Every structure is written in C-alpha cells, then in structure tokens.
Amino acid sequence: MISTDFGPNEKGSDALLALSLLFQPWRWRRGKELHNLKRRLKSKFFSLDTHISLFLTGRGALYQYLRSLNVEPGAEVLVQAFTCEAVVLPILDLGFSPIYIDIEEQDFCIDLMDLKKKYTPQSKVLILQHTFGITPKNRLKILAFAAKNGLHIIEDVAHGFDIDLFKNKRFNGAILMSFGRSKIFSSVFGGAIATRGKRVGDLMKDAERQLPNPSTWFLLQLISYKINAVIIHGLYDVYIGKIIHFLFKQFNLIVPEITKREKMGKFDSAMLKTYPNVAAIFMLEQLNRFNDVYQSRKAISNRYYYKIQPKQYSAYQNAINRFPYITKHRDSICAFAAKYNIFLGNWYTQVVAPHELDLMDVHYKNGSCPKAEKLTKLVLNLPTHISAAQAEGIIQVVHKAHEIAV
Q1: What region, left, alpha or beta, does residue 287 occupy, with left being phi > 0 and alpha being psi -120 to 50 degrees?
Q2: pLDDT (0 to 100) of residue 406
Q3: CA 396 to CA 70: how far, in whole Å?
Q4: How are beta strands 352-353 and 97-101 bridged, if at all?
Q5: Which of 302, 326, 307 is nearest to 384 (CA)?
C-alpha cells in the first residue's frame, strides 16, 4: 500500500517507540524532550536566537499568534485561495476578515498582481503559504510588498519548506510549521510558531503555559496511530490491513485530522491544547533520520519533475511534500491507481478544503480567484516519501491510466 494521506512518514522504528511509550505514561505530557525539540528545530532550520512555541496543532499555533498581534477586530487578513480550513477558521474565530488572493499556476502560491489589487488600508496581516512545500516564485517580492505596507507577515510552511530558506537568517514576522500526520515530518498532531524578538516570544510562551493538556484518551489515540499505521500499511495488500483500517475508523480509534465542527465551518477550540511530551519524542525520532528522508524526497521530486510533468519552475526539484500533477483525468487516474493499492492525494478539491466545507461559511465568493478554482479541478498529488522503484511504478500507473482515459 502506498498512501499520500495515511501515515506516510511512519516506519517500524516509530511503531516500536510508540509501543514502548504505551507503558510509560509519566512521559506523555511533560518531559525534557519538549525543550530538546525546540533546541533541535532552532539549530536545524533557524538560528539559536529564534523563539519556538509548540502547540497541539498548526491551526492552534496560528490562532495563538494571530491573537498576540495588536490588530483590531474586523481587520483584513490576506490569505490565498487553494488552502484549507486550518488557515481560515482561526482568522474567522478571532473576528478578522479573510481576503482571498488568487494563485500562480506554476507554484500554487499567491499571485503578486492579485495581491496588489486586493490590498486595502484595512489589510493588516499577510499569510504566505508554501503550497506542497514549494517556495513561492515571487516570495521576496511579496515579502517586500508586505513590509512596505506594514503588514504582519506569517510564512505558512506547514506543508514543508526548503531547509536552507531560514537557516541562520533573519526573518520578519513568524514562520508557521505543522507536524500533522501527512506532513514532511510528523508527530501525528502538532504545530509550531517560530518568531524573533523578546516581546512576541514572551507572548507566545505565555500562550503555551496557559493551555490545557490533551486528555489521556487523546494521547492514547495519538500513540496508537504510530503503531496502527505501520500494521495497516504492512497488511493492506493482503486485505487484512483494509479491514483493520475500517474497524479502527468505525470505533473512533483513529483521531480524525479535521473535526466535525471544523467541517461545518467553525473553529474547534478542542484543538487549543498544549503540545505533549510524547509528541516531542516522536518528532525527535523523525528528525534523527530527517537528512536521509529529505534527500530521498528530493530524488523522487526530481524523478517526477523530469519524467511525469516537466516544469519550468526549479523549486519542483526540491524535497517537496507532494508533487502536484495537473490533469483533466484526475478522478479516473485516482480510481485506476487505487486498484494497485496506490492512493494518490487530493490537496485541494475546492479553494478552501475539505470538500465538505460550505464556502459561504468561510466568506469565499465564487469567481473571485479563478485560477485557484480551475486548479482544484485538475490537480492530484503524487507521494514523495517512497522509494525510487515505487516512484517508477507510480509513473507507469499514471501514464497508463492517462492513456486509458484519453
């Protein structure tokens, strides 16, 4: 089984670690690993004077950072279409107005010209998303525009990012990271905000301290996911894994990434929790092998770049989280690939995902971002966490499915 969405990062070592932690509940909520993870993230991706704040979810991290800004209710937050509820719902819950910016077709990130057109004096915050882990083509120009107009800047690298982008460099505003189950490294749940400066660092530290801990049942589900994902992946091709996966979902043994309340267009305050120590332990394990994983993802991204859909934009050759493939036959290709137990990704099937979300609830006006709306009908995501042989198999399956569809 190859899945872009379900447990792409989990290995046997993760499952064994989780199994051992089931019998060490005193390490679940608090421990030295929380401090070690912050130090590790700073040294690996940023600089030692960066402040890292950890939260149970990326959307919780975004919520806390937006709340820390000195921005009046009703202010505009500039955010791209072709995004998800995790970005938009915190904006709405805090009383801000999301202003949707169209995207560039090459990089699935903010269109600079549309940004300039939709900016108003009421615009106070800009969220610059690195979709699929692709560095925005006009990133420096967009950041310069934001700085010139006094916008608070949040670079959303939840999908992944070029690891040299912020290393030992100054940056303005904040960097939003996610450690969700389908991201480039995962503790099943988790998010972080990286900032510079004592004032904002102290505010975020206070936010961390004031949040409640996740429940014991939630932590058990989080730990079990690491074990269950490996079992299901290993047995899926002999059908047993498919049965186990179905039963686990039926009995709510797998925590959903998106809650029912969020699918209804409401921010779920149940996700406003502190980041547990057990998740930090999982993250440290993933970071131990991150260099190898990063190079492997880079090699697979290059393979797709040259063999399946050549692009002029060189950032597709980096270690991106998912490789976007544009086709008019997305649904038929996904169905054909599923016959081989290859489950391709679908970020995003509408301009604010998931598809269950009513776009009116998130204040999106149809027709306001035509390029984003067009791409949601054409894009499918190819996995990059796989081996070279598996990537070749996917390329062959996609080409064959395309020929049949045509």
Answers
A1: alpha
A2: 67
A3: 53
A4: unpaired
A5: 302
Torsion (CA) 200, 203, 209, 212 in degrees, nearest 10 = -100
Helix (H, G, I), strand (E, B) or coil at 249: helix
Residue 272 lies in a domain: no
Residue 154 CA to residue 65 CA, distance in Å, equals 9
AA identity, residue 230 = V
Distance of CA 108 to the CA centre of its chain: 14
What is d(CA 383, CA 320) in angstroms, rounded to the nearest whole number? Answer: 9
Question: Residue 314 belongs to what domain range?
Answer: 290-405
163 and 301 both lie in a single domain: no
How many whole angstroms separate alpha carbon 51 and alpha carbon 246?
41
Contact call for residues 99 and 352 (beta carbons, < 8 A): no
Amino acid at 159: H
pLDDT band at 91 (very low <50, low <70, confident <90, very high): very high
What average pLDDT does range 200-223 have in this prediction? 94
Q: How far apart are the first and last CA of the chain?
A: 26
- C-alpha radius of gyration, the chain, whole number: 20
Q: What is the β-pairing status of strands 191-195 and 51-55?
A: antiparallel
